[in-house]
């Protein structure tokens, strides 16, 4: 391989790394903001795709595509079995973030295994629609893996010294690329145990769980009103 080709590959890799790191931090900033901003949290819960597109400054997405993407998100969040699978999947891939192709293959297998009929219906409608579905981004997958890793490290440090807590973010980034630095003021807030929570407080920090659990509750309400049927 020529020197010029090697430099081009390295330049592309650096660009990808910087872009992904910036996006992951913006996603985390969004979730931290939504913890206390009730209106923004409700806007996200009732239209997650559009809020993500707007907050991350991406190119505009047609309403038809965001509607289909939202329907897919809701159908997943309304399935306790798929949410349990996702949390286990993230936990088992904490050492290395899987590629989007690997995740999608595993996700399809899980959908079939766990009876995700509503998910399949959303995917089928997306296939026949001219607009298609706005797909999962690598950055979102990185974010959830990294957030879980950061939470796991923080739980392991519970009761440590103040200096230990300040170093968590730095050590986390050294363990797994782009681990999100979470705030300890958020982490130490009291979290009431609730067996009905879709996302365990051991999976993600409370500031992210409050929005994710709200999204799951809303998805279940939509499912109860037959919002995911074909047609």
Description of the structure:
- By secondary structure, the chain is mainly α.
- 69% of the residues lie in helices and 0% in strands.
- It contains 12 helices and no strands.
- It starts with a helix and ends in a 7-residue tail after the last helix.
- About 16% of the residues have low confidence.
Task: Specify the overall morphology.
Answer: globular
Largest sheet: none
**Tally of separate helices:** 12
pLDDT < 50 runs, ≥5 residues = 158-194
- Strand-and-helix sequence, N→C? HHHHHHHHHHHH
Helix content: 55-70%
The counted number of beta strands is 0
Give the termini separation: 52 Å
Mean pLDDT: 75
What is Rg?
19 Å
Coarse structural class: mainly alpha
Strand content: under 5%
Which terms summarize this structure?
231 residues; mainly alpha; globular
Question: SSE layout and pairings?
Answer:
Blueprint: H1 3-36, H2 38-45, H3 48-56, H4 63-77, H5 80-92, H6 100-113, H7 117-128, H8 138-156, H9 162-166, H10 168-175, H11 184-187, H12 206-224
Question: What's the short version?
Answer:
The protein is an all-alpha fold and 231 residues long. Helix content is 69%, strand content 0%. The model is unreliable at 158-194 (pLDDT under 50).
